[in-house]
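User: Second chain of the day. Same drill as before.
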Amino acid sequence: MFKRYIQNKLESLVMEYFLMHPEVKLVVVVGAAGKTTTKNAIATVLAQKFRVRAEPGNLNEFLSVPPAMLGVEYPDFGSLRNPLVWAKVFKQMREKIYAPTDVDVVVQELGTDHPGQIPHFGKYLKPDLAVVTSVVPEHMEFFGTIENVAKEELFVTSYAKETLINRDDIDENFAEFILSDRISTYGVHPPAEYYFKVKGKQEVLKGFTGEIMSPNLGKIPAEIKLVGQHSLKAALAAGAVGARLGMSAVEVSKGVAQIRAVPGRMNILPGRNGTTIIDDSYNSSPMAAIEALKVIYQIDGGERFAILGSMNELGDMSEVSHQQVGEFCDPEKLENVITVGKQAGEFLAPAAKGKGNRVVSFDNPVEAGAFVASRMQKGAVVLVKGSQNGVFTEEATKVLLKDVSLEKELVRQSAYWMAQKQDFLSTLK
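Assistant: Same format as last time:
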């Protein structure tokens, strides 16, 4: 009852804000994967022309979305049941409503872990533009089938004025779930309307050089400092949003050049003894893990290690999904496959061994990092991929870093998360 009251109040304040400030544009980002990277990329590009508000983390649930949209700090976990704390949040949101607006565009991601949550956001949000990043397995213990995921994520097309859809990662068979004809598409290649044309030789760990091909702006020169094609798609989405909102080709080009990886998402970090770490430890799905492996396979010379954590919240699809990633592990291109977590050890490890890989499994991410640290030679590249609860592969990354000062580049390093991880690791002793 208390939570419902808080939620209703927050949502009514957001509705009031947009009624009072109709000049403020709203861009929302939904999808089974890639939301935060895409949101931050969009905010970076739009900042070339507009005053932009985009909470940099992943506050995307019912209670956290409204404060984030108005630039009000979300309460810490321990105070969510405190009425006085929420009274302060309401007061700050009201001040935003009645003050002159400090932004031109709000960019907000919307998350879901149960059917009906993306539809619910449409009861109080009317986005000027929605971006759908992907339809892949997520929270399958609740969604059950990929069709249900598609129905959920694509419902945003029914209440957004216009939608951009990632054509590469949304199967055309899901077209029946698109509820609007106000659709544009983006992707790495045609027939997406916004796509990327490579120019010259590409260096895997330095990003992409080429042009974003735009139906309304033509060829947009693009230097994109992100790694992996799935990261490139985030930059393409950002360029497409900029074009749709009236930016010039020069403004879009300058914006995409400033996009950088965020902690835990294909972030390139220096490791011990002249090694390189690809830290992708924020979260994992079969698609994202395979895309990350494709990146490390393209790197010439030196040893290559893959630390692969369990992929959470896959429900009945967990076994086959972990096997799929294990079967994609190539013994010709990987020195070792190191798994972290129960499901990765149970399902991914045997599949990788079956392909001829040398596999070592751990429950403790720190031990996994120590194992790789003891074996990697100068020039080695280490991919670290994993999910959150019960996995925490960022703690494996921590062991491999060149310098402790780089720990600020890792995910889940707040006091709250460190306490959670300490409790988790203590259960493994």
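The chain has 15 helices and 15 strands.

User: Great, on to the next one.
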